[in-house]
Amino acid sequence: MNRVFVLSMLLMAGVATAETPASVRRLALLVGVNDGGPGRERLRYAVTDAQAFAKVLSELGGVSPADRVLLLDTGRTGLMDGFAKVKAMAESARASGASRVEVLLYYSGHSDDEGLLIQGERVDYGELRRSLMGLPADVRIAVLDSCASGAFARRKGGASRPAFLVDAGSQVKGQAILTSSSEDESSQESDRLGGSFFTHHLVSGLRGAADVTRDGRVTLNEAYQFAFHETLARTERTQRGAQHPAYDIELAGTGDLVMTDLRATSAGLVLSEGLEGRFFVRDEAGVLVVELMKLPGRATELGLAPGNYKVRRELDGMVSEADFSLAEGKRTPLVVADFTSVLREATVSRGGPELHSAVPLVSAPAGEVAAAGPGRVLVPVNVGFLPGMSLNAVKSGGAPVENRAAFGVMNDGTALVGGLAMGLVSNMYEEEVRGVSMAFAVNTAGGSVRGSQASLALNVAGENVDGLQMTAGVNIAGGDVRVGQLGVGLNVAGGRVSGTQLSAGVNVAAKDVKGVQGAAGVNVAGAALRGVQASAGMNWAGGAVTGVQAAAGFNRAESVRGVQFAVLNVSGDVTGAQVGLINVGKVVNGAQVGLINVAEEVKGVPVGLLTFEEKGQLHLEYWASDIQLANLAVKFGGKYVYTSLMAGIGPDDRMQRFTLGLALGVHIPLGTRFWLDMDLGGSGVHAVKDPWRGNNLLAQGRAMFGFQVAPRFAVFGGPTYNTYFTFNGDPRNKLTTMPVREYLFDNETSMQYWPGVQLGVRL
Questions:
Q1: Were both Cys, which of 111, 141, 196, 503 would link to 487 (CB 3.0–4.6 Å)?
Q2: Is the pTM of this model over 0.90?
Q3: Inter-residue contact 446 to 461 (CB < 8 Å)
């Protein structure tokens, strides 16, 4: 993830005619939640996606304001209340004589492969499906636009059916689930679109872009196919990769589900047969309402509300625009002659695909040819001495310039494209650098860097770095880093890192890291980490870690799916392992290996001298044995692995000796009341008069069969096997009342061994 859930129940069972029978009621529950809870990046467009979907349903989908429930930034309780309201509305529709009830549920927000994540609370897919099936409707359709949303479609375990039913009737019953992504993919939103990719293209399709039959109606099949292909095409080159919408259909009967009727709106836009290219339609407020790719040869009608609009066309690298107004009750046609050409400049949106914006053309001085990018004058080779004292200043007349190569003491310009800049002191470009910029002291690029910058002191990129920045001092990227930063001092990325940051000092990435952060000092990832953080000092990930955190000092992560290795490891939920002297986690699915392990719950193996588990065990035990009549232990740890701190004293030898020891063991439940504990331990045997001079070891293997009399009281007993070693001439006292066998290694070392028994109680 990280991303937008569109649970949209688009229930539009229509007929071949434009009108919906009066006996059909269409109800909608629309939910948009930007907040997924602590540790998850707040979404920008979940709420506006829900509003856009509600608008198209009201204008073209036959859902009246009284028949919809719109919930924005609600919690789990609000969602469940919304289901209850829609259920009551459906029952009322049945009671009022409606022959068909159709329900639309739309949710946009965070999720994972187990359920919805709403303001820190979870609604698992099983509960969601039960709530959906509990609605008394003839047709139910869910559309999920979120990370791993394909898991909801497969939750029942059935295979997706390959085709939608297409017929002229209207007797379809059942349910259909559409998801924005597969079960192991992220769903993405875009600043350029002002919404999620899937919802944006689904709404565009419902407004008419998906009407391939040109009958004025958009069916479920048409809407899904359009959204699938457009979403896949527009996400193939994003940082998170291609997004594949999916579906699970369980419909029976005859008829096709009509989602929207373009003739239901009082105004419309008609793109004439001669128009072709990719079209972007924005309303008077600048909101992108429709995007589509149109082929020549047939007209395309879009259902829009009355008002003023601007449409932009991209074709063969050229951009043109047209302004138009839609009037009540009229269809407004657009033809090629209505469009006016504009120039565009390629820019890159943070975390998004390429943008294009119109810029004015800057004229070159007399005799100069503007062969550079739009708005720039080409000066192939610059020679610079000081800022303002260079060929750029002489030949451009103050206009923005573009260089292919630059040499000198201090080079300054607007952009370096496809070449080399070498400065004795510095290279300073106000916009992008495409190529190699090398300077003794400082390289600065006001825009993105596509290539490399190398300096002794400082490299600065105002935006993204697609390449490499190398310095003995500081590297700074104002946006994403997609290959690497190498610095002896400090590397800073203002956005994501998809590649490598290596430093002898500090690495900082403000957002996700996909790749490697390696430092002798500190690594910081502001959000999720997918890859490796390796440091001699400290690693810090502000989000989930999928991969490895390895440090000689300290690791910290919101959650871990992989391995943490350090002196001190601290994380939320862990799936994998924590290995260190001290490990701290919440729910651990895997292993904690260290001297001290602390967790809320371990679903695996904690291996350590001291293991503290909130949902584990904590007992006080008293027992008598053949060695000593009075023994006390504190037993703590996980459900199945424990540590026992033991002490004992022998009244039978007039309190002249005592033992202190530690044991590690396993707890095996044998039904509801019976259990078996088996452990290995070691104790020192000390004289009361001279307690710390003993050179001995009592090693024990114990099997304790127990019976739980009450929740906090049990009795136990069982056999032991004991081996008592004495070293350096320590007295070879007999510790037990049982027969023993003895072996002398030499005059100073001996071993006694015997079977024993113990009986005790547990609190």
A1: 503
A2: no
A3: no
Look up the CATH number of the domain holding residue 339: 2.60.40.1120
Q: Write out the two tokens for 579.
A: 């290995």
Residue 598 is inside which H or E element, if any? strand 596-602
Reported as type and span, the H/E element at residue 107 is strand 100-108
Number of domains in the chain: 4
Rounded to whole angstroms, what are the CA distances from 358 to 145, 239, 344, 345? 32, 25, 4, 6
The SS3 assignment for 81 reads helix
Give the tens place of pLDDT for each residue, 319-359.
Answer: 889 999 998 878 899 998 888 877 544 333 323 333 333 33
Of 606, 616, 551, the closest CA to residue 584 belongs to 606
604 plus 627 within the same structural domain: no
**Cα–Cα distances in angstroms (integers) from residue 678 to residues 361, 642, 709, in the given order:** 83, 10, 20
Has residue 291 been placed in a domain? yes
Instruction: Write the CB contacts of 382 (distance below 8 Å, at least 6 apart in sequence).
Output: 390, 391, 392, 401, 403, 405, 406, 407, 408, 411, 413
Whether residues 431 and 575 share a domain: the answer is yes
Interval 503-539: pLDDT, tens: 888 888 877 778 888 878 888 888 777 888 888 889 8
**Cα gap 244→240, rounded to integer Å:** 12
Collapsing DSSP to helix, strand or coil, 92 comes out as: helix
Domain boundary among 612, 639, 662: 612
Determine the Cα–Cα distance for residues 729 and 732; give it in Å rounded to an integer. 8
Give all strands (DSSP E) within 227-376, no chain letters.
Answer: 246-252, 258-261, 268-271, 277-283, 288-294, 300-303, 307-315, 318-326, 331-334, 340-342, 345-348, 354-357
Which range marks the domain in which residue 703 is found?
A: 617-762
